[in-house]
Amino acid sequence: MTKANVSTKPKVAFFDFACCEGCQLQVANLGEALLDILGAIDVVEFREVMSEKWDKDYDVAIIEGSITDHHAEERIKKIRARSKVLIAYGACASIGGVNGMKNSFALDEIRQSVYGKDYKLFDSTPTRAVGQVVKVDYTVNGCPIYPPELIEVIKCALRGLPYTVPDNPVCSECKLNENVCMYERGVACLGPWTKAGCNSWCVNNGNICYGCRGLVKHPASGAAEEVISKYNLKPELIKNKFDMYNKCGEADAALSAKGRK
Amino acid sequence: MATENKDLDIKVEYLTRVEGHGNIVVNVKNGKIEKCEFHVVESPRLFEGMLRGRSIFEAQHITSRICGICSCGHSLASIQAAEDALGVVPTVQTVKLRKLLLDYEFLDSHILHFYLLAAPDILGAPSFVPLVETHNAMIRRALRMKKAANDVCDILVGRHVHPISAIVGGFTKLPRPKDLSAMLNILEGMKTDLADTLKLAASLKFPDFRRETEYVALVSDDGEYPLLAGDIGSTDGKRFKKADYKKATNEFIDPRSSAKFTKLSRDSFFVGALARFNLNYDKLHPEAKKVAESLDFKPVCHNPYLNTVAQVVEIVHCWHHAVELIKDLKKNGLDYEEEITVGLNEKGAIPVRAGSGVGSVEVPRGILHHHYETDAAGMIKRADCIIPTNQNINNIEYDFQKLLPEIITLPKDTIRLRLEMLVRAYDPCISCSAHYLDVKFVE
Ligand code: SF4
Ligand code: SF4
Ligand code: SF4
To answer: What pTM value is reported for the model?
Structure first.
């Protein structure tokens, strides 16, 4: 019996669905700090960097990517059934992310536009976040994830503690970082509506917030209207920007509307 | 063992230690190869379709999400295509910084591939995880080097996975003198690790295999190893302007597999580090050439397993190139007036027009093409992205066909490993799912 089999450390597995694997890379980018984490857990599957496979239950399954075909749907359900705790990490997994833009088109139309007349031979379903298919215990937002948050969530998951995603907007961090507001520079930024927790990463580097961490639960709609009218913005422009990451949320809204009926 | 009646049935589902999902299917009946294929089973993400209706200024942000490993490369190809469509000519300073970014990208990606994805095979381990115990110093070195490459990227563009400040028109944030010094310090701090990497590379024994094929990479008439710009060239003497990238790729669908295939002068071609090495050896940094010589590694090399060695040579090239670029920037200073504001289209700072543009950039896995067509409002009407792995798949299968008979008497596990190693040598990045489709097995 190998050492890994007798260890009592929690068995952790990483899985990827439709995504760019950038969130996994953020894990690799932890550098030698990664070895500390590896010391506390047994990574039993991580396809991108390991050939090993595991046939028992997982204490923690960490999922990257969105669910975009029937096979993925079956696979995630099987993983869920074998996992005590399931973490969705990255925008693709937690809110559908950029893959959700597909849902702005009629499914057959977009498939045909890329693959031509044979498109039907190949499966594709509307993009869903992992939580829209199976129960998710923890989420780590962001495209890519902000590594300190992932470590925090893994710690909570291993100890069975809750983790609450901050529900204040990116602007709160942006102000602390003393950035000149993009609106003052004549550009629309999604910071006022987007969940903080990335330390206003993009604005610190001269870009706008694209909304990759998902919407705050209760956006100050009054303030939103104020921003839109103060800077004389077209609401369609803002909506179009939101669709880059948050299109799958509409499926949620539709689902809960169905549920209410 | 006689091969005439050998039966073999290998099916590797979800090949590990590559980016994205791929399967190897091999069937041998009575010593006859019935099936020997490499399938891509990544679910299609339809990026080209999703880009329609987005502003050309957003394309780079979106297409970098095709691949996390080479997101800086996708950004640069995307920016080049957008600027080509808009008629924007980047400044000399911008071009220098983009070249620096590409050097960082190569360092980061090649280090990851060499140490964490390819080396375990040669050291006989299933992954880097058991190597933490058996080769602790080596793994620490790998993670340290990976982090260093990542850290310089963070300083230059905000982060390596999906760069923030590199956009159409230039950079939203330019490195200050202290940033240049910090980057230089980090790079110079890698020296010892770099030397140890070369020692390791010299000690590794790669499988002996040879198949002549056509190699395709950017080529140029100036003295620089072409990564960011150039024409598309091949070892069979073909040369095209990047606008003619379609003639250099000839995508076609083959009923054998659902991935779109490419070819040029022959049935298949090879893109990647080995192709660049074979085509542009003379332009490598002298220090990189010295390393190649010391490894007895010469162009034209026809062993695909040695793509990994070409990557090591490129690590050395990019390290020196980056150090020289930073020193040049430090000496001549930067013009901070060139810092631009994102969202230029909202402000109308760059005039938009109906147009078509192509970006062709060498990324770690080979030549990458992005092509966008826009309407008069600068909105994308059509997009096409041809990634390196897509171009290599066909070549991988032809390698399989030649390799399998040569190793067929070996034990099944060895055969399987050799095939896996061969695919991994190409450092495929299947998650760049631009043109891949799901595969149903016909058993
Ligand atoms: S969330 Fe972003 S970085 Fe993470 S896998 Fe998805 S596209 Fe890549
Ligand atoms: S709107 Fe954007 S730039 Fe302005 S404060 Fe909020 S996050 Fe910062
Ligand atoms: S600033 Fe916005 S887009 Fe950028 S990482 Fe933070 S939440 Fe994501």
So the answer is: 0.91
